[in-house]
Amino acid sequence: MKKELFQLIEYAKTDLFGLSDYIYQHPETAFCEFQSCKAMVDFLKKFGFDIEERAGGLETAFTASVCPTGEKFPCIDILAEYDALGLGESYGEDLGIAHACGHNLIAAVAAGTGIGLCQIMKKHKIPGTLRVVGTPAEEAGGGKIILQEKGIFEQTDALLMIHPTSGTSKIAGRCRCSTSLRVTYTGYAAHAGNHRQRGINAQDAANICYTSIGCLRHQLPDEVQVFVTMTGTYKEQMLIPDKANLQIAIRCFAESNLESTKEKVKGCIKAGALATGCKVEIEEKRGYLGRICNYTLERVLRKNVEELEEPLMPGMVDDNGGEDFGNLNRKIPGIMFYPTLLPERKISNHTLAFYELCNSDKSREVILLGSRALAYTALDLYMDPSIIEEAKKELEEMLQKESGE
Ligand SMILES: [Zn+2]
Question: By residue range, what is the domain housing residue 374?
Fold first, then answer.
C-alpha cells in the first residue's frame, strides 16, 4: 500500500506544486487567508472529502473528512497552515506580506497526504477517519487554540503535520511555552528641581522591577528564560517621569514553570510599585504552549522517513520557538516532521533567504517527501491502532513527568 501511496502522490504532484505556488503567490495574514483556504477546500473537494467550511466559526478554517467504512476510530488529523507574515519595512511593500515561513508547503503537504491516503483507504476499506484540518493564524492569533476551544479536535486520536526547515531534516521535540506581560507604572509628574518631593517616579519603579528580575533569574530553573525590555521612554527634561512601560517575556518548556515563574515575576513588578508608590497595571498576552515529545509516534515516523532515504538528525530535536500545535499536542498525541529546504546549512525562518527557498526546486521535493512521510505514518497507525493507544499513554506519562520538573 505504501508503494501505491508513493505513486498516487507522484501522479498528483503537478497539482500539489500548483496549490503551493498559488498560496505562495497569494500571501494572506492571520484570519484573512480567504484565497488560500478556498484553494485548499476546492482541491480536497475534488477527491471526495466532506467539507465543513468556517470550522469553529472561523472564516478561514475548515475540516475535510473521509471515513470510508463507517468505522470512525481512529481519527487522524493532518494539519494544514496557510498564513503568511510581514517581512518588515526594509524589504519594501512587495514583501510586506510574504510566505517567509513556508506555510504554503505545510498546506500542500497536508493536501498531498490527504488525497493519497483517502484513495488508499477507500480502495482497501481501511477503517478510521481521515481529516485534513485547515488551521488559520499560526503566526499570530493561535487559530488551532480557538478551534480546540470550539471542540473541533474532540474526536481526534492523533495529529500529524510538517514544517519546512533548513539544515538536516529532523523530527521535532519540545518547543517553548510562552507568555508576555506588558507593565505600565503610573506615578506623579513634578519638577525635579523645584518640587521633587511631590513627584512619584515611574521610571524608578521600572528600574526596580528590571533589577529585581535580574536577581530572580539566578533562582529560576535553568530552562526558564525571562526577557525584559524597557519600552517607555521619557522625553521631558527636569520632570519626574510619571509613566514607564516594560515588556516582559517568559519562555520555558514546562507549563508548570511558566505559571510559577509568572507569579515570581509579578512579585518583582509589584516591588517597583511598592517601593515608589506608583500604580501598576499588568496586561498579560498568553503565547502558545510547548510541544510534548512522543517517542511512540517518533519511531513510526522515523522508520518511514528513513525508508524514503531522507537523512534525519538523531532523536527528537528541541527548538526555542513556539507553535500553537503545542496546545493541541498536550491533549492529543502528535508528531511534527521538519523536512529541509537547505540541507547544507541552517538559516532563520522569517527571512528573505527562507522566503526564496519556499518556492524553490527543493520546496517541490519537500512537498513530495512530506506528503509521503505523513501518509506512510498515518497508514501505519490505521493498520495498527494499538500504536495510538500507546502514544496516548505516553502523552499522559510525559505530562506527568513534566509537571514534576
Ligand atoms: Zn511557521
Answer: 2-174+290-403
**HEC string of the chain?**
CHHHHHHHHHHCHHHHHHHHHHHHHCCCCCCCCHHHHHHHHHHHHCCCCEEEECHHHCCCCEEEEECCCCCCCCEEEEEECCCCECCCHHHCHHHCCECCCCHHHHHHHHHHHHHHHHHHHHHHCCCCEEEEEECCCCCCCCHHHHHHHCCCCCCCCEEEEECCECCCEEEECCCCEEEEEEEEEECECCECCCCHHHCECHHHHHHHHHHHHHHHHHHCCCCCEEEEEECCCCCCCCECCCEEEEEEEEEECCHHHHHHHHHHHHHHHHHHHHHHCCEEEEEEEECCCCCCCCHHHHHHHHHHHHHCCCCEEEEEECCCCCCCHHHHHCCCCEEEEECECCCCCCCCCCCHHHHHHCCCHHHHHHHHHHHHHHHHHHHHHHHCCHHHHHHHHHHHHHHHHHHCC
Q: How far is the CA of 103 from the centre of ligand 1 (A)?
A: 6
Q: What is the pLDDT of residue 236?
A: 79
| 102 CA to centre of ligand 1 in angstroms | 6
pLDDT value of residue 87: 83
Separation of CA 323 and ligand 1 centre (Å):
8
CATH of the domain at 246: 3.30.70.360
Residues 239 and 260 occupy one common structural domain: yes
Ligand 1 centroid to Cα of residue 101, in Å, is 5
Longest dimension (CA), the chain: 87
Give per-residue pLDDT as tens, 307-337. Answer: 999 999 999 999 999 999 999 999 999 999 9
- 61 C-alpha to ligand 1 centroid (Å): 17
Residue pLDDT, tens place only, 352-401: 999 999 999 999 999 999 999 999 999 999 999 999 999 999 999 999 99
Q: Which of 258, 286, 314 is the last residue of a domain?
A: 286
* Domain closes at, from 286, 318, 334: 286
Q: Per-residue confidence at 257, pLDDT binned at 50, 70, 90?
A: very high
pLDDT at 233: 67
Q: What is the mean pLDDT of residues 47-71?
A: 97
pLDDT at residue 96, rounded to an integer: 85
